[in-house]
Amino acid sequence: MISRHHLAEVIGERTLNISDTKVLAREIAAYLLDTGQTADVEVLLRDVMEYRAQKGIIEAVATSAHEIDNRILSDIDTILRTEFPDATDIIVISKIDTSVVGGIKVSLANEQLDMTVREKLDTFKRLTANIKD
Fold this sequence. Notes:
- By secondary structure, the chain is of the alpha+beta class.
- The protein folds into two domains: 1-55; 56-133.
- The protein has helices at residues 4-16, 22-35, 41-54, 70-83, 117-128, and strands spanning 57-64, 89-96, 103-107, 112-116.
- Strands 2-1-3-4 form a four-stranded mixed beta sheet.
- Strand 3 (103-107) and strand 4 (112-116) form a beta hairpin.
- It is globular and about 50 Å long.
- The termini are far apart.
- The model has no long low-confidence stretch (mean pLDDT 89).
């Protein structure tokens, strides 16, 4: 069995050179199913994003409870270009997740900025869990 790190490198390298990733996605899914590694998908995806970041491709997922305005996506792109001036490409993917309630979460390979209402509520719950009446 191939290590997750090596698999991420292979996938990352192949995604640099192809435009249609559907076939690659099917091959990866089949491999993960065949080797029983489906539980590692999230970690593998982060590893691939990290590999691609090392090659100059910065990918971010912007998650919100509602559709994200193009102006906000553009602002995220601008911030990422400032943060990663050597990047050859910045990719910001918009994702809707109603469980975040409101606000926005921006996730990169190894970083996350969570400004969602859900995160604030969870933090408040943790901070007040030990307070007695």
